Every structure is written in structure tokens, then in C-alpha cells.
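pinned: reference chain
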Amino acid sequence: MAIQEPIEPSFQSKFHKEQLIRSIQKCNDLEILRGMAMELIELSQKNSAIAKWATQRAVEAETRAREAEMNSKN
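pinned: its C-alpha cells
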């Protein structure tokens, strides 16, 4: 995957999103909706942490690769 390519969710992820949207729209129980909201907040926070971790590892790997390349030229 090239860096310029947009990140697209998988078909399974899109399907899951639609299921969740329909569940929320049909739900009339405020406590269930609150519970769903809290779970979604937790998932969002975890996704952000994973993205940050992956970005840091990618930067570290790129730095190591550039250092190795420079060392091999010297």
C-alpha cells in the first residue's frame, strides 16, 4: 500500500458499522444507548492508541533503515 492511498475500511468493517447504526436507531432504552456510547468511546480511544503506537514503530523502522543505508555507503 502506498502512503498516498487512502485508508479504507474492510467490507466486514462497513457491514459491522451498518449493523451498529441500525441497532442504535432502533433502540429506545436510554441505558442501553449509554452503554453503547461508553463502549464506542473505549474503542475509539484504543484505536487511537494503536494508531499512535504503529506510527511510532514505523518512524523507528524508517530511521533504522536510513541509518543502515548511510552506514553501508560509508
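why pinned: The CA atoms of residues 24 and 36 lie 8 Å apart. The first helix runs from residue 11 to 26.
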